[in-house]
Amino acid sequence: MKTNSRGIPAWAWLLPKRWACWLATLGPLGPLGPCKAPGTFGSLAGLIYYTVFFYTLSPLPYLLFLALTSFLAIGICGVAEVYFKAKDPGYIILDEFVAMPLCFLFLKPRWPLILIGFAVFRFFDILKPLGIRKIQKLPAGYGVVLDDLAAAGATCIALHWLSRVAG
Length: 167
Description:
- By secondary structure, the protein is mostly helical.
- The protein is 63% helix and 0% strand.
C-alpha cells in the first residue's frame, strides 16, 4: 500500500477535502463540540451502525467488514487531521463510529449488554488505560483509529467475561 511522507494511505488524498472532513466528523455530529461530548455522539452513532449492519452477520463477514471500515477510517481520519491542522481533534469521531462493532465481536448481546458495552467502551476510550494512550501517539490516522480499536478490544474482552460470569 502506497503512503505519503506522513504515512497516510495514498488513496485517501483522492477524496475531496470537504468529503474527507465530513466523513471524519460524521457530518454534523462531530462539530457538536459545545456539548463537550462529540466522542459520545460518535459512539452512539456507532452503536446504531452495529445494530443495523453487524448484529446479524456471521463471523467472517463481520471481521471483513470491520477490517475494511477500519482501513478506510485510518485514511480518512489521517487526511482530515492534516486538513484540520490538529492531532486527533475531538470532533473527528469516525474512529469511535467504526470501533464500536468490535466491542461485540462473537457476541449476540441483548440490549442490557449492548448498553453496558457502550459505557465500558466510553470508559476505555476516555481514560485510555492498558497502554491505549501510547497507541494514540502513532502517526496520522493510525493513532486516531487504532486507539479506539484497542479500547473496543478491551471492551469486547470485558463483555465476554461479563457474559460468562452472568451466565
